[in-house]
Amino acid sequence: MRKIIVGMAIVFAIFGGIMAFLERPERTDVVVIGAGASGISAAIEARQAGLSVVLLEKMPRIGGNSQRATGGMNAVNSAVQENDGLGDSENLYLADTLAAGHFQNDRVLAKLLVEKSGEAIDWLIGLGADLTDLGRLAGHRVDRTHRPSGGAPVGSEVIRVLGEQLVQLGIHLRVENKVIQLLYEDNRVTGVLVRNEEGREYEIMADAVVIASGGFGGSPERFVFYNPDLKGFKTTNHAGATGDYIDLVADLPIELIDMEKIQAHPTVEPHFGILITEAIRGNGGILINVEGNRFTDEMAFRDILSEEMRQQPQGGNFLIFDESIRNGLSAADAYIDMHLVKEAESIDEMAQVLGIDSAILTRTIERYNGFVAGGSDEDYQRMDLPVQLTAPFYAILVQPGVHYCMGGLPINENAQVLDRDGVPIQGLFACGEATGGIHGNNRLGGNSMTDSIVFGRIAGQSVAGVKK
Ligand SMILES: Cc1cc2nc3c(=O)[nH]c(=O)nc-3n(C[C@H](O)[C@H](O)[C@H](O)COP(=O)(O)OP(=O)(O)OC[C@H]3O[C@@H](n4cnc5c(N)ncnc54)[C@H](O)[C@@H]3O)c2cc1C
User: Which domains are seen in the chain, by residue range?
Assistant: First the structure.
């Protein structure tokens, strides 16, 4: 009898040991939260440095807001731009970035963004991306915005090649797995608590956690909380852009920065909340109000332009472009396919379609074409006047919509998250739109993809350095 009891005790002990082993939290070198451009870039760099990586994405697919990026990605001295004789330089690009941000940018981070921008484009091209078309978005003094040939959207191309790398490097990606808590002990982050697609919660212990969970522009509740002026605004963001990092760090000694700085993009189609790329204006499109008058430099900074648009009669405006602009940008065809565009064979017909006085629209377009011919915009001093507008014409109704969060987690040049005293929190890194400071009061168009790739890569490399 005694032997049986001892035997059973041993069996229970072994079984208990096995169960305890099976229930032990998973361990990895690095957890990355969010599979947009910044998170995937961080995961790739960490994996290439030999670390084990788990990449967690709460949505059913990768890409986040990065997948939606349309207009392009900025860089100076990329292999595409450096031989183009455009006269660009790091100083000029930095000056444009700081001017757009009304000189409220973190200069150390902004300088790093500029210095590493060309390398970021070359890295993506090396991974197989087509970024050979150079254009210009508002606020730039030269062409430095890279996009696929034909002016195709940049985000899907970048996510395509980054996604391929995930597979090639065997990075452990889990979609529909949402991080709901950071594990924090003895002043360091030690892992994450995750909820999977079945609602089961589990822990992953890690030497480093990278927050790459994007902004909060997809959450009207949050953007109105931080900036009540944005009540009623549509958003261009994907549904997962809910600022989860705000909850994740709520119990840590971190002060979020610049949270009220939220960018409204001037040209959003109001019925469907679809962003109309700045590249249409960059390639020569103009803005008119509902009375048919131009009212601004169409290439002004986004914050200035959005405010001017809101002050126009009835708050509605039309973006006007022509066949040559359409032919240079495949995004324009996408808007036509989505039935967002009114088309007309003449100015008279366009005036009729838009319900505008034909004489006013004729005067507006002829006067603008005269400025293009003379090389000087006497009304609004628009610097870049690429083309005269000729029939057939296209028009899209546009209004400002919430687009980008300049604020977020404070980081240093190694993408380490800083505490209230400016000291790095051990084990915690962040990159992309979840971070704040780089863009100051207003982000220069095309700088976010650059930010996500540059600082995503820095985060992955820093994590590897910490592990060594
Ligand atoms: C319509 C549109 C057009 C744009 N066009 C341009 C452009 O042309 N050029 C440019 O430079 N910028 C552009 N931007 C901005 C740019 O795309 C984004 O700001 C940038 O890509 C952000 O990258 P990210 O990796 O930080 O975040 P995201 O790409 O948004 O990725 C964050 C990911 O984290 C996931 N996530 C969030 N919380 C959790 C959680 N708790 N657990 C797990 N996963 C989580 C999200 O689901 C998401 O997939 C555009 C944005 C939009 C919306």
Answer: 26-261+406-467 (3.50.50.60), 264-402 (3.90.700.10)
